[in-house]
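Self-study notes.
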Amino acid sequence: MFITMTTPALTPFHQKIFPHAKSTKRDLFSAFYFLKFRIPHFAFPNQIPPFRPLRPLREQSAFTLIELLAVITIIGILAGLTLGAAGAVRRHGATSTAKAEVAALQAACDRFYADNNSYPSNSAVNPSSSFAPAAYTGAGQALFTNLLGSVTLSVAPTTKRYFEPKPAMVYTNGSPNYLIDPWGYAYGYNSDGTNAPLIWSTAGQTTGGANTNKWITSWPKM
């Protein structure tokens, strides 16, 4: 009795080591299509997706009109709040600057009085009747020439200079120059030469009969 030994057929070498070799072309095509058209893999787990070059599927949907309007509304509200706060800060800064300048002008007039036994004289403007800074030019020029000793800021003084203004405080498009407040309007000035002068700013108000409670003045307001 003979026993025949048979050897089982061996798996081809490329299939044994690389069992996925048969599906290589299919997998490469699927990967290329998924990457090109951004299709999630779970959309087609076991098959090649249909070839639709003109109708690519999208993973995320676009914003709706309501969502866009909501975002625009929120941005508008935030912008309004920011601009309003910035305007309030600018107004507060201008008011503080005007108060400091009025106090400095008052001190300069006191130094002028100490040397000359009189204040710069000009009674053409009265704060109780002249409410618009357009009428303050002449009085402002008288104050400028007496405190600075010259008709313009660029001309050397001929007398003692009692005040050194910043360039932004001087209106130079005319001769004589005059002093302006942070809003760009002339400072009001009134004095008969004997009594202490009245110096004020209308705080940006330009119309007659304006509310004087908003003015910045050298005298205490009730």
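Second protein, same conventions, sequence then structure:
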Amino acid sequence: MTTPTPLPFHQKIFTHAKSATFAKDFSDQKNNPLRPLREQSAFTLIELLAVITIIGILAGLTLGAAGAVRRHGATSTAKAEVAALQAACDRFYADNNSYPINSAVNPASSVAPSGYNAAGQALFTNLVGSATLSAAPTTKRYLEPKPAMVYTNGTPNYFVDPWGYAYGYNSDGTNAPLIWSTAGQTTSTGTNKWITSWPKM
């Protein structure tokens, strides 16, 4: 019959010391409930500040990325809408041998987007065939715009870009029309950011 091998000396001491430490802590906790156990720990102020800082950085990165996604989405929408307006003008030309006429504004003028409304109204009435989106068309309708693309708080209505400004429109009736969005800019500067129906150099 073999006898079990005893534990090494240091393990015995560690086991007993651990039990004794826990017993002492438990006894102290029982005598004084307000005194925490040694195994319990709390965050320091520095650790809390570090966590808050990291959360702030991550939140800033997330909001910045969300803003970039929104800007990219608005730009893509404006490009698609300019292309749709251009195609509708081509259909109008095929039937009438003329484009909708309006030369009140042109891309080279210093007119802000708020001055495009009259040109936008002329384009709207010719392509939609009525003065408002809700009215029945009196002539052929060349475009079925989404409600978000139309400013309806005035008569006639007019087309607006994703930033809420009227699309610029210019045509003498013979030459291909110029259609553009200032991409949210309220002045005539920074034309390199505009979304246009013509290729930019």
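Instructor comment on the second fold: DSSP finds three helices and five strands in the chain.
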